[in-house]
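step=encode ok
step=design start
structure_in=
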């Protein structure tokens, strides 16, 4: 019997038919039904190595996963061990060095509060529920990205289990090619067990949101896009059209309402921030939450859902925004969101990883919650219209927002893609590891 041959792990294996099977194999997107050969639940790096060695001997592939975000690109998991690293929960903050070390299962929510207490901020994205390791491996864009770039390039070291079962540390001085590849190449090269990264000194910043009635969405987006060329990289702004559900998790004033929202974070004074956002405030928001706040406020600023839900998503990095088409698509979708790019996101720095920059002026993303077949048809139609409207303006993709199996070669310049394949060939020549976006060995 298969279970009798499995190695002993601190947290164990879960097999099809076990009482906890459905919970163990679930991800964040409830429209996707993962069916791996088994799920491993390691408690430490030694457990990870044992699980990798077992999978290799059994002829299985290995798919690392923690929170289950962006699980769609993994596709069919037949003959694959889903290696759930959510039990790796080490957190260590060194405020003097401005360094953080976390286990591969740690979410941002366990770190932002500790950093805030020291006047520090990490380069996290919109949700505190996202795992740090997966976010960093794919790039990572958030509230401070126009000033400081992607989280991938704030990483100073990884520890990971390789295809032969060895646990190694990689940084600029140890396996530098592997260190380069992991910063943007995803989980294709091994199972990350720990990650170390830099954080930034941020004691206070000017941040908040301007809420408008949904009928003002076009006016808001027109004013926002006109303002973008004049904004310094110290200011990151997102424009969204949101249909808020009538649930307790949503702030009371927004519950059950449709609103157009400008969210922003400015690394500067209140006076500077107010001046920069004055053209948007002149539109007459129905609610204005901007203030000088500590950086922990950024973790919930976007009001992202924290619990798994059934959804479909699309996105594109674009050089211009077709406002009328975006407003039309928003009528059916739960969320359309546009993030200002550029600044440090477009500027390659020495020693950057494989995901050095992102193209485009705006990251456009659309999401629809799917509750039944009828709503699924409506969401798919709206996403198709969203994609069609963006197509003439597309500059590229952000892989962390690509939610289906894709040809990953299109995410990288040809020379970067070839180098990634060469690194994969050296460290995983049999293609044991299934990253969210597959990089085949050279």
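sequence_out=
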């Amino acid at each position: 019997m298969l279970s009798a041959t499995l190695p002993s792990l601190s947290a164990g294996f879960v097999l099809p038919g076990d009482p906890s099977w459905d919970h163990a194999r679930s991800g964040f997107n409830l429209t996707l039904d993962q069916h791996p050969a088994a799920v491993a639940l390691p408690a430490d790096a030694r457990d990870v190595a044992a699980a990798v060695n077992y999978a290799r001997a059994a002829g299985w592939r290995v798919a690392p996963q923690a929170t289950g975000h962006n699980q769609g690109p993994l596709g069919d998991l037949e003959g694959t061990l889903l290696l759930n690293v959510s039990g790796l929960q080490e957190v260590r903050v060194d405020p003097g060095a401005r360094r953080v070390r976390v286990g591969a299962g740690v979410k941002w929510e366990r770190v932002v509060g500790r950093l805030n207490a020291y006047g520090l901020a990490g380069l996290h994205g919109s949700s505190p529920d996202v795992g740090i390791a997966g976010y960093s491996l794919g790039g990572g864009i958030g509230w401070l990205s126009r000033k400081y770039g992607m989280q991938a390039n704030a990483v100073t070291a990884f520890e990971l289990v390789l295809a032969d079962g060895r646990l190694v540390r990689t940084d600029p001085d140890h396996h530098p090619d592997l260190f380069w590849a992991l910063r943007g190449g995803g989980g294709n090269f091994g199972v990350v067990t720990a990650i170390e990264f830099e954080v930034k000194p941020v004691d206070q910043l000017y941040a908040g949101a301007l809420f408008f009635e949904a009928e003002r969405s076009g006016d808001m987006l027109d004013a926002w896009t006109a303002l973008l060329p004049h904004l310094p990289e110290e200011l990151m702004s997102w424009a969204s059209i949101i249909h808020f559900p009538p649930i307790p998790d949503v702030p009371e004033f927004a519950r059950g309402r449709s609103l157009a929202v400008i969210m922003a974070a400015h690394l500067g004074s209140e006076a500077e921030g107010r001046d920069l956002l004055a053209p948007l405030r002149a539109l007459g928001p129905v609610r204005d939450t901007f203030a000088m706040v500590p950086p922990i406020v950024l973790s919930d600023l976007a009001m992202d859902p924290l619990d798994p839900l059934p959804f479909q998503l699309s996105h594109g990095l674009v050089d211009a925004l077709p406002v009328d088409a975006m407003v039309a698509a928003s009528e059916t979708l739960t969320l359309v969101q546009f993030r200002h790019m550029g600044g440090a996101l477009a500027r390659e720095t020495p020693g950057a990883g494989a995901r050095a920059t992102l193209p485009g002026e705006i990251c456009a993303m659309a999401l629809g919650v799917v509750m039944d077949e009828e709503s699924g048809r409506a969401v798919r139609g709206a996403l198709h219209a969203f994609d069609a409207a963006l197509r003439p303006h597309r500059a590229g993709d952000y892989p962390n927002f690509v939610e289906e199996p894709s040809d990953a070669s299109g995410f990288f310049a040809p020379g970067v893609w070839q180098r990634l394949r060469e690194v994969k060939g050296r460290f995983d020549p049999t293609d044991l590891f299934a990253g969210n976006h597959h990089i085949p060995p050279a």
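step=design ok
step=annotate ok -> DSSP finds twelve helices and 20 strands in the chain.
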